[in-house]
Amino acid sequence: MTEPAAPGQPGPHDASPNRVSRRQLLGLFGAGAAGAAVGAAAGAGVAVAATGADAGTGAAAAAYPFHGAHQAGIVTPAQDRLHFATFDVSTTLDRDGLVGLLQDWTDAAARLAQGLEVSEDGAVGGSDYAPPADTGEALGLPASGLTITFGFGPTLFEAGGIDRFGIAARRPAELTALPRFQGDALQPERGGGDLCIQACADDPQVAVHAIRNLSRIAFGRASLRWSQLGFGRTSSTSTSQQTPRNLFGFKDGTANVKAEETKDVAEHVWVAASDEPAWLAGGSYLVARRIRMIIENWDRVQLGEQEMLVGRSKGSGAPLSGGTEFTEPDFEAEGPTGTPLIDPASHVRLAHPTGNGGARMLRRGYNFVDGNDELGRLDAGLFFLSFQRSPEQFITVQRSLAADGLNEYLKHVGSAIFAVPGGIRPGEHVGQALFA
Ligand code: HEM
């Protein structure tokens, strides 16, 4: 934490609208002192205004542009922390009210991404006789690589046959509730939502501050439905990043779609201008699954069996067919006894594009531990997030994974899908093309 010393901290009585806030000062100073350390990711269309360290490696002071061709938080090098939330829009809100909310969220998010408070008055610059506009817990903290990504759920377009906002005809045909998958143990309180916000940052306080303040801005217009905190990214989304590990202890993200693979990103992640509907061009579909891991059972499994279930070596992440981490798996390779080196029921075999009509996706999940259950087992797992050009990509792979040996140690308890509109230009609000 870099809470600044009191001198220079604007107090409640020096609320000049033109003063440079402590957080602005920090940002300016950091940028000037360290220069713009723009990593390899920038060359791949990932604009990085970093202030000193490698992208996605815990660069506390990095700030990613909020505006651009695509929303930030998708190909952005996955940050270390997540606060994800879904919202239900109030039944009393009309179309203009919804647009107003999206405008207010956009304005606030653009400021937060720069390390600013939600408004100029902020936490301490307003009236002594009114609640502060910003809740204050991020005062003095840098932007911390914060990205805020908005999504629209199927129920925003039509709920119970009612077209609340006059957008039912504009719902993407593919934006429907996900089908039921084998083994699903979904809890209704961890599913769905009219809107979602994914806040990722390298500091958990910054991510939580973003969701808290955006929820607060929505007061009376949309209410929090469910939310999830995540730590320890379980994917890399840039070749500049090390592959992290999930709570099974395996490297996760090795074969992910990476930002630098611009052709694959265009083919598998972004909705193209030639796809339907036109308003979603440059956007994507986001699938969220809260996957509980039965880690106490997993921890009693022999190393060899763990590796067989995944299809990769636990230490290096290399496929069991040989090579190093980034060697392509060879599913034909056989051992001395003629059995495949990579088990046909292994996760990697079943999730690989070869068995799924070429389907790939950009995975961007996080580990979670939310206390423990009544049996004394950790309520732990992987909050799976994936971005894809069509929900069909996720559906195809998830159906293949019905045969996955890992399922004995997994339980899908939460699920949601959202259409993520394309990038936001200055002066626009998120999803503006939908309401045009
Ligand atoms: C808690 C549940 C899961 C765990 C522990 C897990 C773990 C892993 C691991 C260790 C890898 C190998 C490293 C890598 O390439 O990233 C992997 C790959 C992969 N996983 Fe998962 N995964 C889980 C759930 C899912 C789900 C729900 C999907 C999608 C429906 C999925 C899709 C994939 C894909 C597409 C790959 C890359 C396969 C390839 O091209 O080689 N995973 N996963």
From TrEMBL:
It is found in: Cell envelope. The keyword Metal-binding applies. Its cofactor is heme b. Its main location: other. Keywords: Heme, Iron, Lyase, Metal-binding, Oxidoreductase, Peroxidase, Signal. It is an enzyme of class 1 (oxidoreductase). Its EC number is 1.11.1.-. Involved in the recovery of exogenous heme iron. Extracts iron from heme while preserving the protoporphyrin ring intact. This is Deferrochelatase.
